[in-house]
Write a structure and sequence with these properties.
The chain has about 500 residues and is an alpha/beta fold. The protein is built from 10 helices and 20 strands. The chain starts with 10 loop residues before the first helix and ends with a strand.
């Protein structure tokens, strides 16, 4: 770790820094020049930030304003759709938006832009999670820089904590004045290591005393705001860690007086978090029984393809642990549903899919022109909603469907494989998915997936992972048909290989 030079400040310098920390940040939350702000302040909202929070199902839509401003049009079945209305129509109830302090490199994720996003969410009756990065740019486990406006006090943790408190409280007050108050506030983003650093070289080793002081400042700002305004905004702390590491992270901060908070947010991506949705459920249960804190998957997502739509390098290529190496929209949906079910069964608070509308466009990011995420979005490369993709996980219309085949008459070396319209790669092509063996030595193979009630379609089995392994049914190559016509949560389609 780089050692910082420190000299004792004079009383005059201390008073200047204290004044700056307390009052200097207020310019960041002054009313921007909005022509409609006064009108919005008097408009009734569909829900209040003082209400109870349901099980959360949401999406981070922080890029949507920028993408639509540069010409992106989202469609469903060829018809134009509004992103906020679209997720609401499928059953979502939450929008997450990030807030940077004073970014000079972009016009987005500023307070003005965030107000625009919250307004859109409120107009659809959606809850809002406001993600304070406490930086002028992205923060994550590798980078977490203090806002430029706070650099004069970065080495004085008490003064920096005052800046955090006043900025957080002032932002909430400003949003209240504009009738745009969030239901949930996130204190920092992916804060595995040191936060609000002068230099990213200082990000480790973790200074739990300093971190705790800064977290507590943000938590106290929300608590005081709630008390002073009769509100019940919930709080989230956020890490990108394995379950064991996250539990240790809380324990280490608790040693130094970490204040109570409502939810632990985690980032959960197959690319970087190598554990299953079932492990996630166990984590949620352990977290609540140990600390009384509910688990929120603050960020998640899954690829639907390994193809790309621009020259901006895509960040994700891995499938979830235990999943077949056959990316498709259906498996994206299955992954999100498995997260949802694991959290519901173990007292979790909910989940939020990260940037599922970040399609390729001509906007300039820090990493190039386009998207690093178009293969994780809910849309194809023409910006049309993918059929049976992750957006369907929000609904209560899904049925767990088991396709089962007995391979006893296909030869001792034969294994079960399945294909069908649910294996579509997003470009109109069926794919072959390996099935799981029911037990060692068994001739029965199965594949579980989640289809919609009343969904119908075609499928058939294969004896090897090539198209030449296709079954002949009654002596002919023909498709089988499924019809999800149950009122239950599970339905099975079982066949003998090659038989009607």
């Amino acid at each position: 770790m780089k050692k910082l030079a420190f000299t004792k400040p004079t009383m005059g310098i201390v008073m200047f820094l204290l004044t700056f920390a307390i009052f200097g940040c207020q310019n960041q939350v002054e009313e921007p020049m909005f022509t409609e702000s006064d009108q919005m302040a008097g408009m009734p909202l569909s829900r209040s930030a003082s209400g109870d929070i349901p099980f959360l199902q949401g999406a981070d839509l922080s890029y949507v304003n920028e993408l639509q401003d540069c010409g992106v049009s989202y469609t469903k079945d060829g018809n134009s759709v509004d992103p906020y209305n679209l997720i609401k129509s499928f059953g979502a109830n939450l929008v997450r938006v990030r807030l940077w302090h004073n970014p000079t490199w972009t016009n987005y994720s500023t307070l003005t832009d965030v107000k625009r996003s919250i307004r859109r969410a409120k107009n659809e009756g959606l809850n809002v999670l406001l993600d304070f990065h406490y930086s002028d740019t992205w923060t994550d486990p590798q980078q977490n820089l203090v806002p430029a406006a706070w650099r004069p006090v970065v080495r004085y943790s008490s003064l920096l904590a005052d800046s955090v408190y006043n900025y957080t409280y002032g932002t909430l007050q400003h949003l209240l004045n504009n009738n745009l108050l969030p239901e949930i506030v996130q204190i920092g983003n992916e804060t595995n290591n040191n936060i609000m650093n002068e230099d990213n070289a200082n990000i480790i080793p973790v200074n739990y005393v300093r971190n705790t002081k800064l977290f507590n400042a943000g938590l106290k700002a929300v608590a005081d705001f709630n008390n002073n305004n009769g509100r019940n905004i919930k709080t989230v702390l956020h890490v990108a860690m394995t379950p064991n590491d996250a539990m240790n992270w809380i324990a280490n901060h608790k040693k130094y007086g970490l204040s109570p908070f409502d939810m632990l947010g985690v980032s959960y991506y197959p690319q970087w978090q190598d554990y299953t949705p079932q492990d996630l459920g166990n984590f949620a249960s352990n977290l609540y029984s140990t600390y009384g804190v509910r688990l929120l998957v603050a960020e998640t997502g899954h690829i639907w393809t390994r193809a790309w739509d621009d020259e901006n390098h895509n960040l994700m290529s891995k499938m979830c642990k235990g999943y077949p190496e056959v990316p498709c929209p259906q498996l994206q949906k299955d992954y999100i549903i498995e997260i949802k079910e694991a959290l519901l069964a173990n007292g979790g608070a909910g989940y939020c899919v990260w940037e599922p509308f970040w399609v390729s466009a001509n906007n300039q990011t820090l990493w190039g022109i386009g998207s690093n995420w178009e293969n994780v979005a809910f849309f194809d490369f023409n910006n049309n909603l993918l059929s049976h993709c992750g957006i369907e996980a929000y609904g209560d219309f899904n049925v767990k469907v088991t396709f089962e085949v007995n391979m006893w008459n296909a030869g001792s070396d034969a294994k079960g494989y399945v294909t069908g319209d649910f294996t579509d790669d997003g470009f109109g092509n069926w794919q072959i998915i390996p099935m799981k063996q029911a037990a060692e030595g068994s001739s029965i193979y199965y594949f579980d997936t989640y289809l919609c009630k009343n969904q119908t379609g075609r499928y058939y089995f294969l004896s090897d992972p090539t198209w030449t392994g296709r079954e002949y049914i009654g002596g002919f190559q023909k498709d089988r048909y499924y019809d999800v016509n149950t009122t239950d949560k599970w339905q099975k389609f079982a066949n003998n290989f090659g038989e009607e």
